[in-house]
Amino acid sequence: LGTNPIDISLQEVTTPSALEERGYAADTIFELLERNIGAIVDGAGSARVPERIEVGTPDTAINAYAEIVSVEAPVRATQRLLKLVDYVAEIHFVSGEDKDITATVRIRDSSTLRLLKFDRIEGQPDAFEDLLDQIARSITGFVDPYIMAAYLYNTSIDDQASYNNVVRYVRQMIVVVDEDFLPWFYNLLGKISVQSGDPNLAIEYYKEAIGIDGKFYLS
């Protein structure tokens, strides 16, 4: 129980034999997803450091302890009571008759086990790394929508079409996130407006951010 708090614990990954034969056993997928999520956080390069986006996998100390002493249910309850884990996730891969791969991602609240997010993502075995990247984006966007938005902004090509994709994502998120995140989203829209050649619109976005938080120094 001395481990650091974890935002989301990947509790289960199942894979068909077709993936295992390609070297993508469950343990490998755990490691790849953890690496990909870390790369997204690093790529966001955000001035707003997330409190924590930590991914728990089967080798996390708390999970290893649960397995060793065979008291998984009580330990899971203790995790939840002590707020050591916010969300739990499971990912299942299914290989279709045409050899396409379908991944289902379920994210639950760790306290109630209520389903909070369900995502179905399809891909090809030959492009499995791309499928894993989409899953990592889905998970990161759920745990910290702003970090995902900043990542999309930082990795967008300097053209209007790329910026439009970021704006579209931000507008989807801005209506559902906590108010504490809103100045960061409006500030990002302001930066995009400046780079899109519309400083007047940028000023309006910056005003929105400052209206929510008068001490928001970036805007």
In short:
51% of the residues lie in helices and 18% in strands.
Write the layout of secondary structure elements.
Layout (H helix, E strand, L loop, with lengths): L5 E9 L2 H4 L5 H19 L10 E2 L4 H9 L2 H10 L3 E11 L5 E9 L5 E9 L4 H16 L1 H10 L5 H15 L7 H14 L3 H14 L7
Parallel strand pairs: 1-2, 1-3
Antiparallel strand pairs: 3-4, 4-5
Helix pairs in contact: 2-5, 2-6, 3-4, 5-6, 6-7, 6-8, 7-8, 8-9
Structural features, described:
The protein has a five-stranded mixed beta sheet with strand order 2-1-3-4-5. It is 51% helix and 18% strand. The chain is of the alpha/beta class. The protein has helices at residues 17-20, 26-44, 61-69, 72-81, 128-143, 145-154, 160-174, 182-195, 199-212; strands at residues 6-14, 55-56, 85-95, 101-109, 115-123. The model has no long low-confidence stretch (mean pLDDT 83). Helix 2 crosses helix 5, helix 6 packs parallel to helix 8 and helix 8 (182-195) packs antiparallel against helix 9. The N and C termini lie far apart (41 Å).
